[in-house]
């Protein structure tokens, strides 16, 4: 093994830890199918949300880690359970009344309320693929409808009929008594209405591979093959693992109690249970679980309106076992931390690089950062400069970093546009300027005076030292009270940038003028105008 592979094999980064578990499955011999299969599952009952992206992003990170420590080929299936019946109408789509008429129909037969695709399931699948393609994921899209109807699941379905009692024993033990009376792992598709039927099964004919049930007083017999029936979602999970020989799948914490059920059904159907990874849930700004049907929380499109794809991938990498609050205020920090990691990467040892999120985001092909100005600083600059577009920021950026340009710093140029948009939509409406206290006023007057006398280059560190000294000399304790005063009085916010860097970017004379306007009460007046 190379030194790099040795470092990867010993890395404590969570994608490598998961990759080693997958590799251990094949420590004695390679997989008979010729590859290791990673899978993600998606229920297209509503518009894809950011948690769906997170599953694919994180699984891709594990897949890349696996490919670093093993020569076994890999594949990633993105599986859509689009034959599931539509149990309720999502709140965030049009034509609610029309959709209500198609409740319990498979999602791939429900008309598309947007009028763009042949079905609602087809629309949601297309959205998912568009989102995933935006990030350049390498995956193979699998439709449950296509697999059921084409016969690709037939062998597993026939085996399910043969081993029906064993599957039912597992399932009934997990159900309340009332539910046990009518439950079956098979859901027939009504030949009359096309709906997915939740009805008791009267007879299983394992020899002929059929099920018999009553619909509206009529006894009907259907083959379990060819898309005439589907499996309930819990048995379907395990059956899919068995049918495809899945080696790894991750899912949210809300599935964790069902893991033994999925595993056992996979084994009953002749499969080997995969390695799995349970991540914590994504929450909206109120701490509620993100839901496709509600459309709450932050969407992928919304994140990409204000920040890059890489910043979202960075956010997904962080602490997958910790619940994540997905709201707009997490974006600036994610952008700046991502670029901090990019800048650190070239000088790190192989062990440190494998622990750096950017290795996993870029699969080892890590670009250099051209963000000479942090995103948070761009937001503050947009605030004080009153910028309406990124052009309004570039005059300040060029003075701060003369060699920077939109052409040589494309990520910075994109971030400048994002910053103006983010400031306009989220920062400007919430700014609250306050008047300084007497102690703060004297300190601000001192700062303005020293800026007026400043005859050195606008060096961020030198300016930061001067600002810090003023706070100490005017008796601020703790020192954060002084910096918070600067933010609240001058920027209308509770938090802000390193103030020396802000002065260097905005300009010494411009910062002096800003302080004078604040002391005159003009900033508070303009904010309320």
UniProtKB/TrEMBL annotation:
It is found in: Cytoplasm. It holds the Pfam family tRNA-synt_1f. Keywords: Aminoacyl-tRNA synthetase, ATP-binding, Cytoplasm, Ligase, Nucleotide-binding, Protein biosynthesis. One of its GO terms (biological process) is lysyl-tRNA aminoacylation. InterPro entries: aa-tRNA-synth_I_codon-bd_sub2 (IPR020751), aa-tRNA-synth_I_CS (IPR001412), aa_tRNA-synth_I_cd-bd_sf (IPR008925), Lys-tRNA-ligase (IPR002904), Rossmann-like_a/b/a_fold (IPR014729). The keyword ATP-binding applies. Belongs to the class-I aminoacyl-tRNA synthetase family. This is Lysine--tRNA ligase. It comes from Paracoccus laeviglucosivorans.
